Amino acid sequence: MDEAAVLKQLFFNTIRAINSRDYSAEQVAAWAPDDVCDQRWMDKIASIKPVVAVIGETIVGYTDLQPDGYIDHFYTHHAWQGHGVGTCMLNYLKNLATQLGINRLYSHVSITARPFFEKHGFELVRQRRLETRGQSLINYELACFLGDISYLRSKPRN
């Protein structure tokens, strides 16, 4: 099986096994439908250029970092949740962002993922509601500033 197909399985299985705790069966089916076009999936994966976490020969997670600091996908294999894979991937992204001069990471995260990201320094920007295949899903825009942000302080007035 090629890498894009493995990532597709990981994405869908994680949503169905983990996110189903916080979303209804109808919402999960809309988010991770059975009828996703393979070519569309392959195009999406090619566009985000994922970083893949591997233990032994097994892909246990994947994520990405866009030039503006946006994390589009962040998924840990459902069987590897709670084993440090997500923390390792997020630390990698933070280090990569710093090397690239990106000082702010942000993502649109699920109800399920929000506590993980907040535990790692992300803060709520806003709650979002998105419509997908006739279902309304809540997610959150979270952001994290990296390094010295003293340049954001306003200068004293004379």
Provide a descriptive summary of the structure in words.
The structure is a single chain. The protein has 158 residues and is an alpha+beta fold. It has one domain: Gcn5-related N-acetyltransferase (GNAT) (Aminopeptidase), CATH 3.40.630. Helices cover 35% and strands 28% of the residues. The chain contains five helices and seven strands; from the N terminus they run H-H-H-E-E-E-E-H-E-H-E-E. Strands 3-5-7-6 form a four-stranded mixed beta sheet. It has a three-stranded antiparallel beta sheet with strand order 1-2-4, with helices on both faces. A hairpin with a 2-residue loop joins strand 1 (51-55) and strand 2 (58-63).
Which terms summarize this structure?
alpha+beta, 158 residues, Aminopeptidase, 7 strands
Task: Reconstruct the topology from this structure.
Layout: H1 3-17, H2 25-31, H3 38-48, E1 51-55, E2 58-63, E3 70-71, E4 74-76, H4 85-100, E5 104-110, H5 114-119, E6 123-132, E7 135-145
Parallel strand pairs: 3-5
Antiparallel strand pairs: 1-2, 2-4, 5-7, 6-7
Helix pairs in contact: 1-3
